[in-house]
Amino acid sequence: MPDMTQTPIYQLAERWLSEDKDPQTRAQIKSLVAAKDEAKLEALLRHPVEFGTAGLRARMEAGYSRLNRLTIITASQGLAAYVERQVGRAHSRGVVVGHDHRHNSDTFARLTARAFLDRGFKVYFYPGLSFTPAVPFAVKRLGAACGVMITASHNPKDDNGYKVYWENGAQIKPPLDSGIARCIEEHDVPVNWDTQSVASHENIVDVTEDMIGAYVEAARTMVQSSELNCCTDLQYVYTPMHGVGAPFVERVLSAFGLPPFIPVVEQIRPDPEFSTVAFPNPEERGALDMAKALADKVGVGLVVANDPDADRFAAVEKQVDGSWLAFTGDQLGTIFAATTLESMRKEGITTERIAMANSTVSSRMLEAMAQKEGFCYADTLTGFKWIANELADMQKERGCHVGFGYEEAIGYMLGDQVLDKDGVTALAVFLQLAAKLRSQGRLVGDYLEEQYFKYGYFVSANSYFISPDPAKTTKIFSRIRFGDCNGDTAATEADDRTEFVRAHCGDVLRYPRTIGGFAVSYIRDLTTGFEMRDVDQNEHRMAVAEAQYVPTFPVSSGSHMVTFGTRNGGRLTMRTSGTEPKLKYYLEVRNVDNNREAAAEDLEKMVRAVADELVQAKKNGM
User: Are strands 95-99 and 56-59 parallel, antiparallel or unpaired?
Assistant: First the structure.
């Protein structure tokens, strides 16, 4: 492909029209050319959709910058060529391809399969609607070379995605993403648009029944013992959020001997329009209102949900006082970790050989549990590509048993059968626990309180600021790192910041000494590549040897991410979103004495400090 940054926009449009065989997307570009809408043509054609560690995700419409038949074909051609080069016996080991119910997902999946078939690969195919965990499960179970799931999870209805798993069954991580991206650039001319003959190809294998059956059987090993199937009168409402989860949930619940769910009828069938929710994400405020209303109507005190591709799980429970407790992602993570630890110990696995992990923006309660109980623990960068691969490495290199991994965005991985988040298994484990507790006259909320009593009280506040101007976002982070003087050590606010002069660079990092009045005790900046503990135990100004203060996590100057720890048990991470115009923050406070009021007060002070001291939201119009 010619240098698209220099090519006149109408030449790019001409190239698109010469390559595209989809009448709908061709018509869109033709219409924009006729209208001389150069701004829209620039947005659609100038910058090819980027292939990253989540694969591809974008709006579905015409153009090299979006997801459509042409960009799916070229992505698949490049991926197939890369797998061929990198994975031994790739053709015979084959690839797994599945898709959800979104608009165009079936077509995109067949075009993906077509590209691999054309290069001589065996393709293990889910021709019907699938849930995301089925693909990584099959990759690992079949020993496939890679897997592709066509889904945009809980994104808006106009989006779709292309999620890639490597031969170990986990999502790809660097440097695989950049290698695949280069290979896509080398195969950027779409070759085969045929989807009709995919199903009858001699190298296509429909694995639906075999793999879903195997998944259900494997799920039995991911949950607690069958003695917990003791409360067959458990009642609960379920919603798949207009997604694909219901039939798979039904099969797993039946296998566990758990009672069927009460469905939110309006949301139970796959609907690519997501017609009853503004955002098809159980985390969003109001997303579970319809399910809670149904539960109130029928007198049921438990609601469980999956997101549309069923890789995430959410739950709300009515408490004794009649209020609904919406479990946060971290609270569910704590509940799953505790019940996993109990169950693995009962199986005779020694505690020090049990491995658990969560992302660095998730609660540190899992770390506190590990310190007290003695199981292996790791925190990782955000995303299951890091969590799952870390746990797989702990299993391979240290002989650990994979217990549990999670991220605060309601993603949970139990055991090692699916090396990704799995909302269906998480739902079944949660319901088993709820059944056990109800037989004892307790709620899941009571079980969570027991964990706070054991490990200390953790309270969090995760949110974001809309930040559509990248320059303004960079300026905000620059001020966090360097102060208002941008490195001028003579600045009047120098006394309010801890200065670090990096010996080999000569730059002066001037991070805040306090946040919300609480002394900063830890700094990790994955943009500049700096990490230091016990900050306020060091001199106010000091020379830093770079080799001594380099983070163990990967550093990326292309995005912003900085973490602070404070002496009051606080932890704050601020980062830019890779897919949305957001400046996100994740804030948590721990109180070891389980003093809820004190923790809440500290959290409120730090939330205000994020907005007023660090982001300066009013000044920056955010």
Answer: unpaired
Question: Is 392 buried (19+), middle (13-18) or exposed (0-12) by CB count in 10 A?
Answer: buried
Residue 499 has pLDDT above 70, yes or no: yes
50-206 shares its CATH topology with 215-455: yes
Q: What is the pLDDT of residue 570?
A: 94
Q: What pLDDT is stored for residue 490 in this prediction?
A: 39
Mean per-residue pLDDT of the chain: 91
Q: Average pLDDT for residues 480-508, to the nearest whole number?
A: 62
Res. 617 pLDDT band, cuts 50 70 90 = very high
pTM of the model: 0.92
Closest CA to 164 of 190, 192, 184: 184
**448 and 325 Cβ atoms separated by less than 8 Å:** no
Instruction: Please state the rounded mean pLDDT for residues 130-137.
Output: 98
What was the pLDDT predicted at 551?
A: 87
H-helix or E-strand spanning residue 428: helix 423-439
Structure tokens at 312: 């995430």
CA angle 181, 127, 308 (to 5 degrees): 75
Residues in the chain: 622
Domain boundaries, the chain: 50-206, 215-455, 461-614
Active-site residue, from 65, 153, 343, 359? 153
pLDDT of residue 115: 98
- pLDDT at residue 164, rounded to an integer: 98
pLDDT at residue 224 greater than cutoff 80: no
92 part of the active site? no
Rg (CA), the chain: 25
Strand partners, 461: 587
Domain 461-614, architecture per CATH? 2-Layer Sandwich (3.30)
Coil, strand or helix: which one is 262?
strand
Sheet holding 376-380, edge to edge: 376-380, 354-359, 401-407, 411-414
Domain 215-455, second-level architecture = 3-Layer(aba) Sandwich (3.40)
CB 602 within 8 A of CB 518: yes
**Nearest in space to 584 (alpha carbons), one of 476, 494, 485:** 476
Superfamily of the domain at 50-206: Alpha-D-Glucose-1,6-Bisphosphate, subunit A, domain 3 (3.40.120.10)
